[in-house]
Write a structure and sequence with these properties.
Radius of gyration: 36 Å
Number of strands: 14
Strand content: 5-15%
Strand order of the largest sheet: 8-11-12-5-13-14
Bound molecules: adenosine-5'-diphosphate
Length: 606
């Protein structure tokens, strides 16, 4: 089988992905957000814990030296002087103090564990909520421009990697403050050794910069590869039936295997670089310690306890430095994921359209005044469309495929805005009216039924406040009630994609019931019967005939028989209105309509 070109992930930027790249500060802001207090508390705990650790280490070193001295001279326990703290106390007391410090440090591990966990889980929940919030408010043109599987991947995989950045950030805060405190303590104990060792640690950190840079570039490719992979999976899942029918499952497997191996390559590199940088740094730490001892040897002398303390503190600072390094690396390798997540967020947010404020209690006219529309900066798909439709009229829309009928429906539904011209409701610009009122007054049945994986009742309600009586009323109007009560679980029967068998006709009638449940004033149908069996078609037509007098109807008709219930018919040819009149007038004056009627009649006769 012929292979398709692979999805390009980040290179195929569309819709929300195409947002402007964000600055480092704003990317970090996604992690910090309103968690500044938690972060400040984490920093404070890290500083205190660092000081406790340094004091404990200094104390232990002095105690060890004192005890070794006593063992050598055969004397019993006595008093020792801590030069650093200028204290005199018995070893026993100092051991108790060391225990107390250890206990205190142990206590600090509680906030030092809770705070990072809180910050990371908070980032995950907030980013996911904000992202979906932004997606659900985004305009239909941005939502529909999203590549398949992208939202799922951003909401799951990319957010998880971004949260890895939050974990890195908290680790970086803790370890950096601990490192600074340990270095300050080391400076107090032996300034020269500490400054030299400190600058060597920073030098080592700088030395590893190119490797970290490669890590970030690789993470960017991994992020894009994962979006491509998610798109491939979503598409394969949607087209599983076709893959069986066309024997394309093998080719599909090959395609996914390629996407998997692409991701694997970048994932392998990410793992390798992380380990390489950590291991190199770890080895250099030992070198640092040797350097520290060398420095102490060169500068010579000093109190044995202080020397022991400085070695201990420097060793610990070196280990903390390693944690700084790996936390920093986790953070910067998460930046491409944060950037993609943030770009999605910004792209969705930028497309949000403001609702008008004028209340809309009834619709008496719907008019297009020279409305034009283009999907991109190419030739317009609809040009200078003009019409006035009064409440209660039934308008059929006909025209060849690609003429612009579905686009016109999307404009009528206000899913897309005219590029030029005005959409008027009751003579006023459509955008003046409150969205909530508009959604109550207008309804839609798409060409293909789309159900939730939920009960029939939930599918008819579709997240709106609609009681059981209204659900049943709508189901009766849509001629699906008798079918539903015949099912074992009645209105609680679970339907939806890949749920128990519900025929295409039944699905379409559930969608019609959904459209009628809120008792709208305007109903728009995109030829809901074109793919149905004759019985379902007859039931839907009967339903439409029954409700027809209570509604303003727009029906995109692929079959001329659908036009029977229409008062007027709009003929769309090449993005323009080529006729809008009664069937009789069009039969007389409109060549396209006449020809379509003739073909339909000939089809019936044959
Ligand atoms: P019809 O419903 O009459 O078949 P459509 O409104 O679907 O026609 O399409 C009209 C034109 O707009 C076609 O040329 C089609 O290729 C183009 N078009 C439709 N949808 C999109 C889209 N989402 N992006 C870009 N072009 C589109």
């Amino acid at each position: 089988m012929r292979q398709l070109p692979l999805p390009k992930g980040a290179k195929a930027l569309t819709g929300a992905d195409a947002a402007t790249p964000t600055s480092l500060g704003s990317r970090l802001n996604l992690l910090i957000g309103d968690r500044r207090r938690l972060i400040a508390a984490l920093a404070a705990c890290s500083i205190v814990s660092g000081f406790i650790e340094a004091a404990t280490l200094a104390l232990v070193a002095h105690l060890a030296v004192s005890l070794v001295g006593q063992a050598r001279h055969g004397s019993g326990a006595g008093h020792t002087q801590l030069s650093l703290f200028n204290l005199h106390a018995s070893e026993g007391t100092l051991i108790l103090v060391a225990f107390a410090l250890c206990g205190l440090r142990l206590l600090f591990q509680v906030p030092l564990s809770i705070l990072p966990a809180r910050i990371a889980s908070d980032v995950q929940a907030r980013v996911r909520t904000e992202l979906f919030d932004a997606f659900s408010r985004a305009s239909w043109s941005v939502q529909s421009g999203d590549r398949e599987g992208r939202l799922q991947e951003v909401m799951t995989g990319q957010v998880m990697q971004a949260v890895g950045g939050a974990v890195g950030m908290t680790g970086l805060i803790t370890s950096t403050f601990q490192f600074i405190v340990l270095m300050v303590s080391a400076i107090l104990l032996s300034p020269l050794a500490a400054v030299l060792v400190g600058s060597m640690s920073v030098g080592m950190f700088a030395l590893l910069r190119p490797l970290r840079g490669r890590g970030v570039r690789n993470a960017r490719k991994l992020s894009a590869a994962q979006v491509g992979y998610a798109g491939g999976i979503a598409e394969s899942n949607r087209l599983a039936e076709e893959a069986h029918v066309f024997g394309a499952a093998g080719a599909q497997r090959e395609r996914i295997a390629l996407l998997v191996s692409q991701s694997q390559r970048f994932f392998y590199r990410a793992q390798l670089l992380t380990r390489l940088i950590t291991n190199v740094y770890q080895s250099l730490i030992v070198l640092l310690l040797v350097a520290g001892i060398g420095i102490l040897y060169l500068i010579g002398g000093g109190h044995a306890g202080s020397l022991g303390a400085v070695v201990l503190v420097l060793l610990r600072a070196g280990m903390t430095g390693q944690t700084v390094q790996s936390a920093y690396q986790s953070l910067i390798q998460a930046l491409p994921f944060i950037e993609r997540t943030q770009n999605a967020l910004l792209g969705y947010e930028a497309s949000v359209e403001r609702s008008g404020e004028v209340r809309l209690t009834s619709i008496s006219t719907l008019s297009f005044d020279r409305v034009s529309f283009a999907y991109r900066q190419t030739a317009p798909v609809l040009s200078e469309i003009c019409f006035d439709v009064r409440a209660g009229e039934a308008i059929g829309i006909v025209g060849p495929s690609g003429a612009g009928k579905s686009t016109l429906v999307q404009l009528l539904l206000r899913l897309r805005r005219p590029v030029d011209g005005r959409y008027l409701i009751n003579g006023a610009p459509a955008e003046n009216f409150a969205d909530a009122d508009w959604h109550r007054q207008i309804s839609y049945v798409p060409q293909e039924p789309r159900l939730l994986h939920a009960s029939v009742a939930e599918n008819i309600r579709f997240f709106r406040e609609i009681d059981a009586a209204q659900v049943e009323r709508a189901a009766r109007l849509a001629r699906i009630h008798d079918d539903i009560v015949g099912w074992k679980d009645g209105y609680e029967t679970i339907v939806g994609p890949r749920a128990d068998a519900v025929s295409g006709g039944q699905q379409q009638r559930i969608c019609l019931a959904r459209a009628l449940a809120a008792q709208p004033q305007v109903l728009i149908l995109d030829e809901p019967t074109s793919a149905l069996d004759p019985q379902s078609e007859a039931l839907i037509s009967a339903s439409l005939l029954a409700i027809r007098s209570d509604l303003t109807l727009f029906i995109v008709a692929h079959r001329m028989s659908t036009l029977e219930m229409c008062d007027r018919v709009m003929v769309i040819l090449d993005g323009r209105v080529a006729g809008l009149d009664t069937k009789a007038a069009l039969q007389r004056d409109n060549p396209y309509y006449r020809n379509a009627s003739r073909l339909a009649t000939a089809g019936q006769g044959s």
